[in-house]
Amino acid sequence: MPEIETARAVAQKIVANVERVILGKRNEIELALIALLCQGHLLIEDVPGVGKTMLARALAKSLGCTFRRIQFTPDMLPTDVTGVSVFNQKTREFEFRPGPVHAQIVLTDEINRATPKTQSALLECMEERQVTVDGVTYPLPQPFLVMATQNPIEYEGTFPLPEAQLDRFMLRIRLGYPAPKDEMAMLDAQRVTHPIDTITQVATADELLHAQRAVKDVYVDALIKEYILALVEATRKHPDIYLGASPRGSLALYKTAQARAAIQGRDYVIPDDIKALAEPALAHRLIISPAARLKNVEARAVVEELIHSVAVPGSRAAM
To answer: What pLDDT shows up at residue 319?
Structure first.
């Protein structure tokens, strides 16, 4: 339990610090931190100007981590992401010049504007946490988080992410527009300077790595595991779903539930953790059937429906 308390304290310091920049979005900040605690990656799907870049920068500054931003465009090459070997005329040898992905927190802005070939350059980075260039493998720093953004409104000149790439994102979130009072506070806060310039480091990368290890010790009961599998299995059998969640989705729900429990100071997972994380962990992995798309059925709505229809194992119906 002491390790869980330490992890909770670190998480609360980071969340409170980032909240000074991203106002009124505590739940979304916690979800971003959960992805970081689970050594996963985050997809932010939202309209421009709601603070996606600021969220990544604030997380990096709070932890003292290296931060790089990659603006994806259709003419970008895979080597623009991973790095390239350049011939040195003096030494007569090839030297590797690392690309922007060699950082601890990497923001890939408008990822769906890059070609599939360039998008695929991120697959090895995200899954194996390494980069292979000209047959040589280079490990990426720890901790390592890819935060990718895409605009769900503008589809001209974009290349939709393939299922294999979507499946590698542990969570997908939306920040959404701020509430009027939060937007008013934002106007006041940025009158002279941006809050991102005033926040300082509140935790170290080593503390985060320790918290990542502590999260893995959070207890998950057999009934909770049954509930996770029941939800995932229900996505595979739903009439509106052409392709349900993969086993990677089950693992994502399992790991993120452990992290959410730790953030709340518990060393055990409860069904509410699963319900809170089902939509961000599973919805982006589902492919809606063509007939359901004609009826404007959304994956989020399907997951919400399953949360209400799939019974929690071991529970009793109300009398």
So the answer is: 44
CB 169 within 8 A of CB 77: no
The residue count of the chain comes to: 319
Q: What is the residue extent of each domain of the chain? A: 1-214, 218-311
At 88 the three-state DSSP class reads strand
Confirm if 312 and 222 have CB atoms less than 8 A apart.
no
Q: Which fold has domain 1-214?
A: Rossmann fold (3.40.50)
* Amino acid (1-letter code) at residue 257: A
Amino acid at position 20, single letter? R
Q: Looking up tokens 């720093």, which residue turns up?
A: 141
Cβ within 8 Å of residue 72, ≥6 positions away: 108, 109, 110, 111, 112, 113, 114, 118
What pLDDT is stored for residue 48 in this prediction?
80
Q: What does the block give as tokens for 278?
A: 């089902």
* Burial of 93 from C-beta contacts in 10 A (0-12 / 13-18 / 19+): exposed
pTM value is 0.90
CB atoms within 10 A of CB 48: 12
CATH number of the 218-311 domain: 1.10.8.80
Which residues share a beta bridge with 257? none
Cβ neighbours for 109, distance < 8 A, ≥ 6 positions apart: 52, 53, 69, 70, 71, 72, 149
107-118, pLDDT tens digit by residue? 999 888 888 888
User: Percent of the chain at pLDDT above 90?
Assistant: 49
d(CA 58, CA 199): 8
CA dihedral 41, 236, 176, 23 (to 10 degrees): -50
The shares of helix, strand and coil residues in the chain, as percent rounded to the nearest 5, are: 50, 15, 35
List pLDDT tens digits, range 21-78: 998 899 999 999 999 999 999 999 888 888 888 999 999 999 999 999 999 988 888 8
CB burial string 162-179: b at 16+ within 10 A, e below: eeebbbbbbbbbebeebe
